[in-house]
Amino acid sequence: MKYKITLLGLLFTATTFAQITTSQIDEVVERTLKTFNVPGIAVAIVKDGKVIHSKGYGVKSISTKEKVNENTLFGIASNSKAFTSASLAILVDEGKINWDDKVIKYLPEFKMYNDYVTNEFTIRDLLTHKSGLGLGAGDLMIWPDGSDFKANDIIKNIQYLKPVSGFRTKYDYDNLLYIIAGEVIHEVSGLTWNEFVETRIFKPLEMKNTGSTWNRLKDTSNVIIPHVPIDGKLKEIVRYKNQTFDAAAGIYSSVNDMSKWVIMQLNNGKFGNQKLFSEKEHTEMWTPQTLLPNRTVAPYNSLFKAYGLGWQLNDVKGKLQVSHTGGLEGIVTQVTLIPELKLGIIVFTNQQSGAAFSAITNTIKDSYLGISPIDHVAEFSKKVKDSEEDADKVTDEVWKTVADNKKNKNLKVDLKKYAGNYKDNWFGEITIIEKKGKFYFASKRSPQLSGEIFYYKENNLVVKWDNRYFQADAHLFFENNNETLKMKPISPLTDFSYDFQDLEFHKL
């Protein structure tokens, strides 16, 4: 490994401040695969309107060993959000909507946590993550896969989610409002979100292999399998397929096809003879809408950080960066644009390590920004190790206490008093039931949320989900003489879409 790091450094030294070479990209990707235990990665670079690198690395599946190539399909997850904002921009150009139209004009059943917010909520507000709701609020209606919530349920239930900040005052990333944005597109255009992006975006961009969702792919012969590390060993998992999530995270594409999307974005909405949307609306999507906290640190020395309409915005070495990431179980992706350099970088992976795509993107980006070589693989590897060690301390303490409780013959705990049916306004019913002396948690509307319950501390139980790749075991807190049940994740690294903290169950 030391030899490889040295070789990478020598390669960079020889070409400092020059365009990164194919061999350098190959080297950093291969190191990334091994360092972060990622089976497969695809990388594409667009420069000056042309694809100058498009290549697959590693394997689609650890069982089949089939190779990833530039046409291999990945779930791009939240990189789908920019397609939703682009779809709305097309409708704005056509005069069918305005960004600041009220949502209730098109979806009269839409209702937020109070009347003022409901009446003032605009199409723009659906895209900018400053609704007042918390991070990932309500995502348990779509996460994990297998729930029976549909878009109309989300429109109905979002009123029950409690705000954590004032309307339009603070950034908190949101998925559900993009799903509702997809319903606005459906209402205005007469086409489903899937039909709209397929006909109005994929077709003119000649993204022939791309599908708006897994279930609408025409050919699945060249698709990755998602992977998750479980107890230190990499395993294949079941693919996320819930179409309710499509307008926020549904698209499957390859780096070859996504290069066409990037070329269009870097050319102000134009692709060949096609013009998808106007320069005016393109500028609107890349204009800061919501400010985020920012620290000005080397090497990029960013002075601002913001969210536009479907895009994350900041500056790197004095140049605008337009980007987004995406994550599904076992898949993470990143798209990065630096318009002033006419540069686009696409990195797709089939394992959920964000450090992997960040290490590759930053290495490529640095070469174009004239930044002295940094070993981003080693840098992110240390960050991952440190954060995992901190999280392990938290989770290990919980499960050690649980194990000690089991061994303590003097500890008498009657879990029967917690048994029963409980209901949350937006998530619906769950059951805590005894089976052969053990107690289990089971959700009515999200069947995958099932697992065994253990005693931790007084009126604080913990649930270990049957599905171990969730990595989202949770605390159960019983209040008001066991009439109220609240939850929160055990590990600080639990994905924010397991928004257990937004639940408040009441015993039936």
Structure description:
The chain has helices at 2-14, 22-35, 81-93, 115-120, 123-127, 151-157, 176-189, 193-202, 246-249, 255-266, 279-285, 354-369, 376-407; strands at 40-47, 50-58, 74-75, 227-230, 233-236, 252-253, 270-271, 274-275, 290-291, 305-307, 312-316, 319-328, 331-338, 343-349, 420-424, 428-435, 438-443, 450-457, 460-465, 474-479, 484-489, 504-507. The chain is globular and about 75 Å long. It has an 8-stranded antiparallel β-sheet with strand order 2-1-14-13-12-11-10-9, with helices on both faces. It has an 8-stranded antiparallel β-barrel with strand order 15-16-17-18-19-20-21-22. A two-stranded antiparallel ribbon has the order 3-6. Helix 2 runs antiparallel to helix 12 and helix 12 packs antiparallel against helix 13 (376-407). It has 13 helices and 22 strands. The protein folds into 2 domains: 41-132 and 167-353, 3-Layer(aba) Sandwich (Beta-lactamase); 387-507, Lipocalin (Beta Barrel). The chain is of the alpha+beta class. The longest helix is centred in the last third of the chain and has 32 residues, at 376-407. Helix content is 30%, strand content 23%.
CATH superfamily of the largest domain: DD-peptidase/beta-lactamase superfamily
Write down the CATH class of the largest domain. Answer: Alpha Beta
Total beta-strand segments: 22
Query: How many domain modules?
Result: 2
**Largest sheet, strands/sense/barrel:** 8 strands, antiparallel
Q: Hey, roughly how much beta strand do the residues contain?
A: 15-25%
